[in-house]
Amino acid sequence: MARGVLFTLSLAFGRSAMSAETLQAAAKAGALKPDGFQMKGKHPDLVVLSDRPWNVDTPPHLLDAPVTSTAHAFIRNNGLVPEEIDAATWTLTIDGESAVNRKVYTLDELKSNFKHYTYQLQLECGGNGRGEFSPPGKGNQWGNGAIHCCQWTGVRVKDVLAAAGIKPDAVYVAYYGKDRHISGDPKKVPISRGVPVNKALENESLLAWAMNGKDIPLIHGYPLRLVFGGWPASASGKWVNRLVIRNKVHDGPKMTHGSYMVPAQPIAPGAPAPADKDMKIIESMPVRSLISYPKTGAILQNKKTLNLRGHAWAGDLEVKEMHVSTDFGATWQLCKLEKPVNRLAWQDWSTKVTFPSAGYYEIWARATDSLGKMQPMVVPAWNPGGYLNNACHRIAVQVA
Ligand SMILES: Nc1nc2c(c(=O)[nH]1)N[C@H]1C(S)=C(S)[C@@H](COP(=O)(O)O)O[C@H]1N2
Ligand SMILES: [Mo]
């Protein structure tokens, strides 16, 4: 009996080695059940990469819907989820060297003082695809599912910043959130990142309280979070209670020491990490796509044609073309590609492929952005943090 349970646990946790202690913690939190991952409101087939902090990946076939359901959205935390949040007493403070006035708003004031907007926005972790780098990049070994494209409702960051007033010397807008440092030390901040002022002032940059039409679940940042579509999702602060308008590039935890940075000049795989002055902060994410149907491993009975579909996105840009190959990239077929529902939403694509015979095939998918840049077929520039792997997504099918 005990053996059976342990076997299931090790499967659920895939490649990540876990100590007995974290297994116990996870079991307490109710995440570990013999039948897979269990978290209220979450699909049991999500893949737990770590439980302290919570990092949970989404298999690509669970990203098939045009709008990612909350149950299927990946989870990325750097620290511990805050406890005892009271939305009625929650406040957002806006200050910083480059704020004209310090402002404090309750959630009700934010909702009543500013116009509401809803956008569908793609948020991708800077480390999505990290698991394919060799030697491995530092951090969670994400597969291809650290991306979601949900509907977010809130107020524009630019409207709130304008109410505080932005001094001409403003450079960056950064967040602080209510999550706790993994050490438990209340003085330590797990993560405090931001974006240059221009990104903060875009129409689609939101301070959101609703995800897919409902209150944001605690694990995704209840009661208030930032959403900066198209940029590393680490900029989209959860549990946000303070915005700072900075007169320099923000220097909070995870803005330095190589976090969310790549070498300014390419380095050899496994080479030591350059100093921050020789690194650049990741901004708009590169072009990428997913095959969301069928699930990899599909077996086709008595037919040689298959309808495929998925999504493609390109950071701040649009995707202009989508191709698939069933012969390892020797030939490519153009797919039908939809326009995004709004700027910074992913784009749905679909096509039908015909296989020449029975047997084993791989399907490769490749998006091209509006500037003509394509996804590479192999893992791109190695970097110490294992960021920005936008290699083509590949699935396998068997034609019986
Ligand atoms: N306060 C806070 N905000 C945060 C984080 C965090 O650890 N704390 N993680 C960031 C990172 S690295 C990512 S990829 C996204 C993940 O958002 P999600 O868990 O809602 O998918 O949240 C970002 N916002
Ligand atoms: Mo992330």
Automatic annotation (TrEMBL):
Keywords: Metal-binding, Molybdenum, Oxidoreductase, Signal. Its cofactor is Mo-molybdopterin. It comes from Pontibacter saemangeumensis. Transmembrane segments: none annotated. Pfam families: Mo-co_dimer, Oxidored_molyb. SUPFAM superfamilies: E set domains (SSF81296), Oxidoreductase molybdopterin-binding domain (SSF56524). Residues 80-252 form the Oxidoreductase molybdopterin-binding domain. Residues 1-19 form the signal peptide. This is Sulfite oxidase. Residues 280-399 form the Moybdenum cofactor oxidoreductase dimerisation domain. The keyword Transit peptide does not apply. PANTHER family: SULFITE OXIDASE, MITOCHONDRIAL (PTHR19372:SF7), SULFITE REDUCTASE (PTHR19372). CDD domains: SO_family_Moco_dimer (cd02110).
